Amino acid sequence: MQGAPIWSKTFAAAGMSPTVIAYNEVYNAIQNGVIAAGENEAAGVEAMKFYEVAPHLNLTQHAVSIRPICFSVKTLKTLPKELQEAIMKAGKEAGDFAGSSSRAKRSPSSMHWKRPASSSVYRSRNVTP
């Protein structure tokens, strides 16, 4: 889990025993039974291949990750006009995508995970995205 105290307190309040662990150690920790569960967004699970060692995935939609691209208007204005327009267009498209129900309700079958046959994916139905 992340090192922010709010995350530890949140999961402790839910009756769990949170442990902060380095992100690059999570795969081995799950594989070797050092930790029984992990908390991560779907993109992280896919990128780090946690699905290879975690017998179950629960897609709770309990958090939303925001990755803004930030720079000053002064810097933006130094870019060629076409690039400024492309950045603004991409930002609008990303915002529309992030708010769309297609992303929020992405089904496990649409994810490119190669899960072992013995694993399962659970989608929480009582969470409003």
The overall pLDDT, averaged over residues, is: 77
The helix/strand order is: HHHEHHHE
DSSP strand content: 5-15%
- Per DSSP, the total helix count is 6
**Unreliable stretches covering 5 or more consecutive residues:** 106-110, 122-129
- Sheet with most strands: 2 strands, parallel
**Helix content range:** 25-40%
Shape verdict = elongated
Structural class call reads mainly alpha
Identify the strand order in the major beta sheet. Answer: 1-2
State the end-to-end CA separation. 21 Å
Count of DSSP strands: 2
Rg measurement, Å: 18 Å
What is the gist of this entry?
The protein has 6 helices and 2 strands, in the order H-H-H-E-H-H-H-E. The protein is mostly helical and 129 residues long. The radius of gyration is 18 Å and the shape is elongated.
Write up this protein.
The structure is a single chain. The chain is mainly alpha-helical and 129 residues long. Helices cover 40% and strands 6% of the residues. The protein has six helices and two strands, in the order H-H-H-E-H-H-H-E. The chain has helices spanning 5-13, 26-31, 42-48, 73-78, 81-99, 101-104, and strands at residues 56-59, 120-123. Strands 1-2 form a two-stranded parallel sheet. The chain is elongated.
List the helices and strands and how they pair.
Layout: H1 5-13, H2 26-31, H3 42-48, E1 56-59, H4 73-78, H5 81-99, H6 101-104, E2 120-123
Parallel strand pairs: 1-2
Highlighted features:
40% helix; mainly alpha; two-stranded parallel sheet; disordered C terminus; 129 residues; single chain; elongated
